[in-house]
């Protein structure tokens, strides 16, 4: 008899009610793949885009989820040992093949990173995509260096807050934006040096403090705020386009000479598990356990609260990461 699991399935793009919990067979891993018992998974804008029909290249029905945290059940190729704690992230999860919104997921071994930690699953489940994207943006997208300044546009998003934590660990001066003054305290608590209320003219606020502009900037809102972010950055400074909280990511009639300020450099980041070295993941977990770093979590949900969790993500009310724990 085939063993079954609970999974959250999207048959076609639609409202939050389109996410349905149903019984599916537990997948069987082939050589080079890993079967993981999912303990927790974080929610991401990518999954919202898929549900809303904004993502390309997704086939349905599909179990969503571009990340998962749990323990290894089976790895036929011997890459991992049963019982090992692991995270899985990106690489087509929840898009090209079924992802982490389930009690079990089967993913390529190349997308899996092992770790050891006594932190609770809710905390661990918040990390994979958030830490990978934040670390990749800082290193690959920005080549950020100690002592530099950074502007984080979309600061109260999970990636924005994680980037602020990592940047402070690097000895950077952090500017971070929020449109909601009530969320400012959350940014101050994680060590942000300058909280800016986003009124659409952030560059004026930045240059009142740093007349030449910031050294680096991370754009997480999207193309509506990108021109202002570019204007906030000094000559030879770098802006990395990583996120699109606004659901807008293209520039119409892009004319570089007019769009990009003189001497400012524009890059982009969209990576995967290979950009998160195991030592970085383990080091961050150890720092959290020691009280030297924080994981920005807004709320932890039970598996059957997926509709409520997706509604919160769509409304943009969260300050930090939304996480689902399968065993609650």
TrEMBL record:
Pfam families for the chain: ADH_N (PF08240), ADH_zinc_N_2 (PF13602)
Membrane-traversing stretches: none
Name of this chain's protein: NADPH:quinone reductase
InterPro entries xrefs: ADH-like_N, ER, GroES-like_sf, NAD(P)-bd_dom_sf
Superkingdom of origin organism: Bacteria
Domain Enoyl reductase (ER): 14-324
Molecular function in Gene Ontology: NADPH binding; oxidoreductase activity, acting on NAD(P)H
Keyword NADP found: yes
Keywords: NADP, Oxidoreductase
UniProt key word Secreted: no
Organism listed in the record: Microbacterium maritypicum MF109
């Amino acid at each position: 008899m085939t063993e079954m699991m609970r999974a959250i399935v999207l048959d076609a793009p639609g409202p939050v009610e389109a996410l349905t919990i149903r019984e599916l067979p537990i997948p069987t891993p082939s050589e080079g793949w890993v079967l993981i018992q999912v303990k927790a998974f974080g929610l991401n804008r990518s999954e919202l885009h898929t549900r809303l029909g904004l993502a390309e290249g997704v086939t349905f029905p599909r179990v969503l989820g571009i990340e998962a945290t749990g323990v290894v059940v089976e790895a036929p190729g011997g890459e991992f040992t049963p019982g090992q704690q692991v995270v899985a992230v990106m690489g087509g999860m929840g898009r090209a093949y079924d992802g982490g919104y389930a009690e079990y997921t089967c993913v390529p071994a190349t997308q899996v990173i092992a770790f050891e930690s006594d932190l609770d699953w809710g905390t661990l489940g918040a990390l994979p995509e958030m830490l990978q994207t934040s670390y990749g943006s800082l290193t690959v997208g920005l080549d950020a260096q100690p002592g530099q300044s950074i502007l984080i546009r979309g600061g109260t998003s999970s990636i924005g807050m994680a980037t602020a934590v990592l940047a402070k660990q690097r000895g950077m001066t952090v500017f971070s934006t929020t449109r909601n003054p009530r969320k400012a305290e959350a940014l101050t608590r994680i060590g942000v040096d300058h909280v800016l209320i986003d009124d659409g003219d952030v560059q004026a606020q930045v240059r009142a403090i740093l007349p030449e502009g910031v050294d680096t900037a991370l754009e997480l809102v999207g193309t509506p705020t990108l021109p202002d972010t570019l204007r906030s950055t000094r000559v030879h400074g770098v802006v990395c386009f990583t996120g699109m909280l606004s659901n807008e990511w293209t520039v119409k009639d892009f004319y570089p000479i007019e769009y990009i300020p003189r001497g400012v450099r524009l890059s982009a980041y969209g990576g995967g598990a290979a950009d998160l070295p195991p030592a970085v993941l383990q080091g961050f977990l150890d720092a959290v356990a020691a009280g030297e770093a924080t994981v920005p979590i807004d709320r932890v949900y039970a598996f059957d609260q997926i509709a409520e969790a997706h509604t919160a993500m769509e409304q943009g009310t969260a300050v930090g990461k939304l996480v689902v724990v399968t065993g609650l």
